[in-house]
Amino acid sequence: MNDVIIIGGSFAGLAAALQLGRARRKVTVLDTGLPRNRFAGHSHGLLGHDHKPPLDILAEARRQLARYPAITLVNARAESISGAIDNFSVVTGDGESLAARRLILSYGVADQMPDVPGFAECWGTSIVPCPYCDGFEVAGQHWGLVWSSPQSHQSARLFRDWTDKLTVFADGHEIPPEIQADLAGRNIPVIEGRIVEIAHQKGQLSTVNLATGRNVAVDVLFAHPRNKPSASLHEALGLATQDTPTGIVLKVDERRQTSVPGIYAAGDLATPFLPSVTQASSQGAMAGIFAQQSMLA
Ligand SMILES: Cc1cc2nc3c(=O)[nH]c(=O)nc-3n(C[C@H](O)[C@H](O)[C@H](O)COP(=O)(O)OP(=O)(O)OC[C@H]3O[C@@H](n4cnc5c(N)ncnc54)[C@H](O)[C@@H]3O)c2cc1C
Question: Do the domains 119-222 and 2-111+226-294 match in fold?
């Protein structure tokens, strides 16, 4: 039996495996190779790995994990989980059944592309979610922000550290008059109308096209599409979740344990605020350590 099965072997899952492997705990990592930031040319903000392609960072991590004989990396999808602490069962897409005393869920979330032609093609290139990830490279350029929730007001204020050329796209939302006044006071124009198309060339957007017939040129667009967990395994065991403005995440305690004893969670799947590679790696490491410490004789 495995000590731990980790479902999702990206930044969070591999960081958990590293701690468990160093503690000589038998661990299997199941992964389907689709990290959330695979659309981005470069990953930013992870100390020591800044401005590297995300898949290169992960490939290097996997090479380093090969030192540890207790870690098995498997390219397979986890299809179902069942059981309870000290006796969990995971069935893979190949029909194999694996057993473990603990589970770490780190299968991330998937961004749901809106039904707007051109949006998905630009995602990760010229439509991006986070200024800390991609702001520096486009500082001083003309940014657009797609309004999605009251939190967009905070984004508009935040973006001023990178550019003073910002346009807000209401995209069908009613922006309250007091916020409209605040934006006007900051010289941030608000453009009404639903976005119906993103005109682009090979992922580099040229204009945001609106239902009103207006086409507005910006250099980069920040948007926060809704997301959902990349798998629904947590539903079978009824793990508690919490709502965020863009989707749901798993609830965890200070030791990264979910509402079900013996199941831990790390990374975007359990990060309600500012998900990042750094947070995922840190949480994964802690989930690995806490899972190991929960198995001491
Ligand atoms: C466009 C874009 C750019 C970004 N840029 C940055 C950046 O520059 N810096 C930064 O810090 N953050 C960035 N992020 C955020 C970053 O991608 C995430 O915070 C990070 O990938 C989270 O890591 P994770 O391990 O939790 O999940 P993920 O990296 O999403 O990995 C989840 C893994 O689980 C696997 N999986 C899913 N379901 C199953 C299953 N059933 N069985 C087995 N495996 C499964 C997937 O294939 C995947 O490999 C960006 C995000 C986006 C969308």
Answer: yes
